[in-house]
Design brief:
This protein has 15 helices and 16 strands. It is an alpha/beta fold and about 450 residues long. It has three domains: about 270 residues, Rossmann fold (3-Layer(aba) Sandwich); about 90 residues, Anticodon-binding domain of a subclass of class I aminoacyl-tRNA synthetases (Four Helix Bundle (Hemerythrin (Met), subunit A)), CATH 1.20.120.640; about 45 residues. The strands form five sheets. A five-stranded parallel β-sheet has the order 5-4-3-10-11, sandwiched between helices. Strands 6-7-8-9 form a four-stranded antiparallel β-sheet, with helices on one face. Strands 13-12-14 form a three-stranded mixed β-sheet. The chain starts with a strand and ends with a strand. The protein binds adenosine monophosphate and zinc ion.
Length: about 450
């Protein structure tokens, strides 16, 4: 069955064909590690995770690269403002590297909790300064760059396809040419290298042929993706905010330098909203995963919530919708825990599932098919089919919850067993109530009594 993906470049669903048979190279724009990644950011990585799981499910070998922005991302995407890393380091009185290591570790912990598979290669901007300088030199040689008092800029008017991803209005772009933004020649031009205002003040700065400074935010993604995946590769992902600035800039730098097509398929996930607006650090109203855990949500309940919408639809987050996802997820796992394994596979349901996921990653429909399967009393092969589906969902659907049985709880369970053996049902019920008060419930199944958290 062929996999169809919506390519932002063509604004169409296309059949996916990798450059090399059976192998996929994929690059995802990663976190800027000056602060926590909030659950909006994580929504985007859950999307990238099921995309990769679906590629693997289709028997592709996947090489997944993700960058870590630890320098050069300014507080404004328009190449002005302060470097987010330097600002955080100053505020916290720490070294920029300490901040980066700290937040990267927290991010990786969150990925683990959400069953997001780690990329094959993590690459940090600060560890690829040489590659970025080399790329800027190539662009300089070809005449795409110019110098201002604060850095080396890319002249977007020299790259004829600049508008192809964002589908920017060409007339608007032309008009932009007349607008001088500081010393920029065109509104859309962007920094490749920024000079340190006063060398010696910034924590992170390097020598370059143009002076002491640091790379612009966009150049790292071109330099590192091409280093690890080649000058043309299969898939590039990001959030919808990258369609208008960051990704057109990546395309311009890469294609101007190599003369080749940079990426074949561009996939963008839409935003997680909070009260109708993009969840973002600058707007406030963000949640981080550990806060949800403190509110007794399991991270996989958040993953479940992410799967209830298509990645090209925005999702309005609230604790109420998360609560609904929690109830649904718990119910689903409970139903599954009572199904016995007949060692078969249910081809009919699996085929429907395959069509859904291969139709531009339609996870909400895939979830509906799973629900239909678990509720279908006549269906055979449920367990093995669920197991196969869970390779993509990543929801630990067959994993039994481990419950720590305290001494008190253990004693009550044994007492209830004795009461049941003696057919003292009143006593057994009283003990069950006590157990409920401790926050646990008991389920008597053919395989014995199971303890669950309420
Ligand atoms: P940053 O750490 O700011 O560079 O963002 C990391 C990634 O999260 C980027 O790919 C953004 O597009 C994405 N992102 C930021 N905010 C949201 C949001 N509210 N919903 C979904 N994705 C987001
Ligand atoms: Zn990027």
């Amino acid at each position: 069955m062929s996999l169809k993906l919506y390519n932002t470049l063509s604004r169409k669903k296309e059949s996916f064909k990798p450059i090399k048979k059976g192998v996929v190279g994929i690059y995802g724009c990663g976190p800027t590690v000056y602060s926590h990644q909030h659950i909006g950011n994580l929504f985007r990585y859950v999307f990238e995770d099921y995309l990769i799981r679906i590629l693997k499910y289709n028997n592709y070998k996947v090489k997944h690269v993700m960058n870590v922005t630890d320098v050069g991302h300014l507080t404004s995407d328009a190449d002005v403002g302060e470097d987010k890393m330097e600002k955080a380091a100053r505020k916290e009185g720490k070294k920029a590297k300490e901040i980066a290591d700290y937040y990267l570790k927290l991010f990786r912990d969150d990925l683990k909790k959400l069953n997001i598979q780690e990329p094959n290669i993590w690459c940090k901007a600060t560890e690829h300064i040489k590659e970025q300088i080399e790329l800027i030199k190539r662009l300089e040689k070809k005449g795409y760059t110019y110098k201002t008092s604060d850095g080396i800029y890319f002249d977007t008017s020299k790259f004829k396809d600049y508008e192809k991803l964002a589908k920017l209005n060409i007339k608007g772009l032309q008009a932009g040419k007349r607008v001088k933004v500081k010393e920029k020649k065109n509104k859309t031009d962007f920094a490749l290298w920024k000079f340190s205002e006063k060398p010696g003040v910034r924590q992170q700065e390097w020598n370059s042929p143009w002076g002491i400074g640091f790379p612009g935010w966009h150049i790292e993604c071109s330099a590192m993706s091409m280093k690890y995946l080649g000058e043309t590769f299969d898939i590039h992902t990001g959030g919808e905010d990258h369609i208008s600035v960051h990704h057109p800039n990546e395309i311009a730098q890469s294609e101007a330098a190599t003369g080749k097509k940079f990426v074949n398929y561009w996939l963008h996930s839409r935003w997680l909203l909070f009260k109708g607006e993009k969840m973002s650090k600058s707007r406030g109203g963000i949640y981080i995963l550990s806060e949800l855990e403190k509110k007794e949500f399991n991270p996989l309940e958040y993953r479940y919530l992410c799967l209830t919408t298509h990645y090209r639809k925005q999702l309005n987050f609230s604790l109420d919708t998360l609560k609904k996802a929690q109830i649904a997820y718990k119910r689903l796992k409970n139903i599954i825990s009572e199904i016995s394994n007949d060692k078969k596979i249910n081809e009919k349901y699996l085929k429907a599932f395959d069509s859904a996921i291969n139709d531009d990653l339609n996870m909400p429909v895939a979830l509906q098919i799973l629900w239909k399967l678990v509720r279908d009393e006549k269906a055979k092969g449920k367990i093995n089919t669920i197991k196969k589906m869970d390779e993509v969902f990543g929801l630990d659907l067959l994993k039994k919850e481990k419950i720590e049985i305290s001494k008190e709880l253990g004693k009550l369970i044994r007492e209830r067993e004795t009461a049941r053996k003696n057919k003292d049902w009143d006593e057994a019920d009283k003990i069950r109530e006590k157990i409920n008060k401790l926050g646990y419930s008991l389920k008597d199944t053919k395989a014995g009594t199971r303890v669950e958290k309420l």
